[in-house]
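Standup notes, protein team

Yesterday: finished cleaning the Nocardia terrae set.
Today: M20/M25/M40 family metallo-hydrolase structure.
Blockers: none.

Input for M20/M25/M40 family metallo-hydrolase:
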Amino acid sequence: MSETAETRATRAVSEVVDLVSALIRFDTSNTGELETTKGERECALWVAEQLEQAGYETEYVESGAPGRGNVFARLRGADPSRGALMMHGHLDVVPAEAADWSVHPFSGAVRDGYVWGRGAIDMKDMVGMMLAVARQFKIEGTVPPRDIVWAFVADEENGGRWGCQWLVQNRPDLFEGVTEAVGEVGGFSLTVPKPDGSERRLYLVETAEKGLGWMRLRAKARAGHGSFLHEDNAVTILSQAVARLGTHTFPLVVSDSVAEFLAAVAEESGLQFDPASPDIEGQLAKLGTISRIIGATLRDTANPTMLRAGYKANVIPQTAEAVVDCRVVPGRQAEFEREVDALIGPDVEREWITKLDSYETTFDGHLVDAMNDAILAHDPAGRTVPYMLSGGTDAKAFATLGIRCFGFAPLRLPPELDFTALFHGVDERVPVESLEFGARVLEHFLLHS
C-alpha cells in the first residue's frame, strides 16, 4: 500500500503512544488540596527534559505553591510580526480508585488497541501529541509560520487557582505576544448517520464554554439537644434549599455556538432539532452519548455535590453547609444568581468558592480554516463544526489576557466508543490509532496556522 498523508509515519507518530503512556505513569492526582495533590513537579520536569533533549530552552515555574509545576518553551516562527499561537495542556488529573479499574489507572498500559489510564483523554493524550510534534519540529529544524508557545500547566482540575490563574496574574510575560490559543476538549469526532445510509464524521471544535462556579451554601440556626422540638434547624433549612435548587430546571437558552452545531448536525444527518420544543432533550438523544454534553449547554445547571453538618447524633448543629457545582450559559450570570437567591431563600447564605466566567468566540478566521484543512487532509470524509463545552478549561484564564481560545485535540474515534463517559470515568482509555491520527493532524495544523 502506498504511503499517503493519512498513513505517513513521522517522528511524532512513532513517539506519541510511548509519550502518552509515560505521562500516564506519573500519578498527578489533583485532590483540590495543596497538601495531598502530587506528581505535578515530577511530571513537569520530565516534560522539560523531553523538550530539552530535542533542543528547546525551557522555563520551569511553580505557580504559587511548592510542587505546582509548569513548563514553557517557545519555537520561533517564520514571521515574528504575527501574533504567537499557544498550545496548552494540563498535567494534573482527577484521582482514581485502582480497585475499580480493569488495569491500574497509572500503568499507562497499551492493550487491545488502547492506551489505558487516568488522563488518557483528560488530557495526557493531547499533552503527548503536543510533546511529540514539538520534539519533531525542533529535531528536524521545522520553522512554523508563526511563533508557537508550548505550555504545560498545573491545577486545571481544580479550576487553575494554582496553575493558569496564578500564571496569568503573576507571570503575564510568559504569554507575551500570544494572540490565539488551542487546548483541550475539542477536535474529537462524532459519527452521525446520513439520510442515504452512509456516515459523516463531525469534528467538534470548542468555541465556547459555560461559566464555572463552585458555590457554598450555609444555614445557621440555634443548636440544641436532638430530643427537643426544633422548628429552627440548620440541617432542615439547608436541606430544603438544596432540594429546591437541585430539582430546579433553568430556562432554555440557545447560544450561537450551540445553534451552529445543531444546524450542522441537522444538515448532515437530516435530524431536526427544535430548541423551542418541550422534547428537545429527546431530540438530542438521537445523537447518542454526546447528547450529555450538548444537552447540558442548553441551560444553566446547579448540582449539589457536597454536604456537611453536625458532629454527634443527638446534637442539632448550629451550622450546615453544602457545595453546589454551577455551570452557567454565556450571558446568563446575573439572571442565574437572581434565580438561585430566590430558590434558596433568605435564611441561607451563599458564597463563591470558585467563580470563572463563561467564554465564547466565533467559528471563523484563519485558525479555524487551518483546523478544517488539517482534518480534511487526513480524513476527507470529515467536517469541523463548533460546539460549546458544558464544563470549563484553562481557556477561561487565558481569555482574560485577550487571547482567543479554541479546543482542538484531534482524535478520530470509533463510532461505538462512549467517549464522553471516559472523562473522569473508570477505565479511561484512548485508541492508539486515534493518537497517531491526532499527531498527524496536529502537525499539519501547526504548519499552516
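Follow-up from PR in the comments: The longest strand covers residues 199-209.
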